[in-house]
Recover the amino acids of this structure.
């Protein structure tokens, strides 16, 4: 078998590579963007080497990576027409992991360019490469505003919360309609750092929220020192509903195991079974940011101006804090029958541990922040 | 060498009126907005109060730099009303070229011949030997005093209460005139003031980007910037968005409370004969009495009946705009100012809520 992977230097993509290296001797062709300062091969191997250390993996994986990983320079936002000329092996598994995780409206065009047009180009290339399986990474939150049990079926008649979700739905639809090869859609929930070391290399999702909290605290400290250490902000969310977070290594191990299984199912929730509630999650990240746990209110009428502005600033994240959702895992569990997936319970303290890892980085980065007194 | 005095207060506390009053007195040099402008609206405070010894040329560079925030505002027609430099066709500096910090307000506040004064001062300061920043400032204030044949130099920068710990460290023998005004009036006035609007926006930009985008080209975190803040980056500054940017007075109420609480801790350490507190409302109600009290505090020799009359005539009553707020906004503003009022009450400065 041989693999082709987009988004190879990304958070999930790099973990997929490490998992493939752990589980196989297969060749892995990695699409890596060209950068002026360093060639793609060096960049990828440097990253994988660092991750092997950061994730606490066996150093042999680095040697394996040198043998098994072949960098193909290219970019999903550009033409992939010539990429196949650098590949002289039959690719069985195409892993489309590259994605834009941006969400502000000013990036709408770029988000669609990568998540939708990029998926089109990936499918085109997969056809040229005559692959057997096309493994596409989406998100369990394509479910948008839908609540209740979310099944591993194609998102239909869904109202989405933002451009990012809409782009992922459009990407899924393209993959779902593809008939040239067997397609699988992997839907991780909110991906957090490594289960054993907490290390992450992408700081969207939970980390983006944490960053917003730290900035907001800093802003308010400039307005009135210590204000947010005394006053709790109010949030109008559902504190008791579950929030599905999953460590990156579990996403990768489940995805690779499913890809290597004989399953004929096509959509898989790569979600966690033991998750915190929204209230626990917010308590963990607020505490990590040095803030008082928010006050949960029933109506936005109870907001003061600061609450209102705060909630506007984290609007993107807030959509994940309302509505009861349970992600059905029938397909995933069936494919992972032997192992049923590794169990990694994320409770409030575990999430705080993950958050603290990033808070420490933020504190270091912010040491040189210009003062206002 | 005579120690300078400082008029300090929260933003929009009425210190501009005091500065204008003092400017009328022939024996006082009224230095206006020096620290506001050489810190580029409070964003470069460590540079202006560095502990390092610097030479005269470096000191002059700090005073005469064309700082980006104030000049962006000038260029886009949203300068603060305190900016006095006349950007006319024949002027030496224009909004496009940028105006040195010292020429934005401080020198035009003193004389119509501000450009000449600027050159003269530059020549003098550039030749100063290496010394502490405090020493340079003292030399600067003394130069002004002698140049204008005055008894006292009084510096006043809007919102300088934020600098009180630095000013009292640098000038331990200086006198301080603390102007206090009802926080609700201050907040209402700050809400409409472009300078404070810019300060609030710069706070937010700095917190998200990890740098002040007006002083750094690093845009590594620009993707994190919420859409609503993008128009305030210097490279795409949108004056229309700036004019339309609205912040609740309650935020400024919190700001006012914070400034008061922090500053009172420092003011409590200043010897009583070096500190006078004047309520702005008392200045409006009893201008003669308060002006006399202030002049006597600065230097008893400054007290002249004719001057008291002349200075008191500048008083101009203003309505309490916060009373026109909706009940909800008024409650929020009251709540925001409450910690500040409480802190003042502990120092026997009382306001009726």
């Amino acid at each position: 078998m041989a693999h082709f992977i987009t988004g190879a230097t990304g958070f999930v993509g790099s973990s997929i590579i490490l998992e493939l290296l752990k589980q196989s001797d297969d060749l892995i062709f990695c699409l890596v963007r060209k950068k002026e300062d360093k060639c793609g091969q060096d960049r990828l191997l440097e990253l994988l080497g660092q991750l092997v250390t950061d994730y606490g993996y066996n150093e042999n994986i680095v040697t394996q990576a040198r043998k098994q990983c072949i960098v193909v320079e290219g970019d999903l936002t550009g033409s992939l027409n010539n990429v196949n000329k650098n590949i002289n092996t039959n690719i069985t598994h195409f892993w489309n992991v590259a994605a834009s995780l941006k969400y502000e409206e000013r990036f709408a065009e770029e988000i669609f360019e990568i998540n939708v047009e990029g998926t089109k180009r990936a499918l085109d290339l997969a056809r040229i490469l005559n692959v057997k399986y096309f493994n596409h990474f989406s998100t369990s939150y394509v479910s948008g505003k839908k609540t209740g049990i979310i099944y591993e079926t194609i998102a239909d008649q869904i109202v989405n919360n933002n451009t990012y979700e809409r782009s992922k739905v459009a990407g899924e639809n393209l993959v779902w309609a593809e008939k040239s090869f067997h397609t699988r859609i992997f839907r991780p929930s909110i991906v957090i750092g490594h289960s054993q070391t907490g290390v992450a290399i992408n700081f969207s999702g939970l980390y983006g929220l944490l960053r917003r909290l730290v900035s907001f605290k800093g802003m308010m400290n400039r307005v009135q020192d210590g204000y947010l250490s005394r006053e709790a902000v109010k949030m109008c969310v559902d504190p008791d509903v579950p929030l599905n977070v999953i460590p990156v290594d579990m996403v990768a191990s489940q995805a690779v195991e499913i890809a290597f299984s004989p399953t004929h199912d096509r959509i898989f929730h790569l979600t966690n079974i033991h998750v915190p509630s929204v209230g626990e999650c917010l308590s963990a990240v607020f505490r990590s940011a040095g803030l008082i746990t928010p006050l949960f209110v029933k109506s936005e009428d109870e907001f003061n101006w600061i609450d209102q502005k705060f909630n506007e600033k984290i609007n993107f994240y807030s959509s994940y804090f309302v509505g009861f959702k349970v992600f059905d895992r029938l397909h995933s569990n069936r494919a992972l029958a032997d192992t049923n997936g590794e169990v990694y319970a994320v409770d409030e303290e575990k999430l705080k541990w993950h958050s603290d890892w990033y808070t420490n980085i933020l504190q270091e980065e912010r040491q040189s922040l210009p003062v206002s007194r | 060498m005579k120690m300078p005095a400082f008029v300090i207060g929260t933003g929009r506390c009425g210190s501009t009126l005091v500065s204008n009053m003092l400017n009328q007195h022939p024996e006082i040099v009224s230095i206006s907005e020096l620290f506001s402008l050489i810190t580029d609206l409070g964003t470069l405070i460590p540079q202006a109060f560095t502990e390092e010894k610097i030479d005269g040329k470096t000191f002059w560079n700090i005073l005469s730099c064309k700082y980006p925030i104030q000049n962006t505002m000038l260029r886009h027609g949203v300068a603060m009303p305190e900016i006095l430099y006349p950007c006319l066709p024949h002027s030496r500096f224009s909004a496009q070229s940028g105006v040195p910090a010292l020429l934005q307000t401080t020198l035009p506040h003193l004389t119509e011949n501000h450009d000449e004064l600027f050159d003269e001062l530059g020549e003098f300061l550039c030749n100063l030997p290496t010394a502490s920043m405090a020493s340079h400032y003292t030399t600067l204030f003394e130069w002004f005093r002698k140049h204008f044949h005055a008894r006292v130099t009084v510096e006043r920068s809007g919102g300088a209460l934020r600098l009180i710990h630095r000013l009292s460290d640098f000038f331990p023998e200086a006198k301080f005139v603390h102007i206090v005004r009802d926080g609700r009036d201050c907040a209402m006035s700050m809400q409409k003031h472009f300078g404070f609007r810019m300060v609030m926006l710069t706070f937010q930009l700095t917190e998200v980007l990890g740098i002040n985008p007006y002083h750094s080209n690093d845009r590594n975190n620009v993707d994190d910037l919420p859409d609503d803040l993008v128009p305030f980056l210097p490279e795409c500054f949108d004056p229309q968005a700036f004019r339309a940017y609205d912040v609740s007075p309650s935020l400024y109420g919190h700001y006012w409370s914070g400034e008061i609480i922090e500053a009172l801790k420092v003011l409590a350490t200043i010897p009583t004969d070096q500190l006078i507190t004047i309520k702005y409302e008392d200045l409006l109600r009893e201008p003669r009495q308060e002006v006399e009290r202030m002049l006597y505090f600065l230097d008893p020799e400054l007290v002249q009946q004719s001057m008291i009359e002349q200075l008191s005539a500048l008083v101009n009553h203003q309505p309490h705009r916060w009373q026109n707020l909706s009940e909800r906004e008024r409650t929020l503003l009251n709540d925001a100012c409450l910690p500040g009022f409480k802190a003042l009450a502990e120092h026997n400065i009382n306001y009726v809520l």
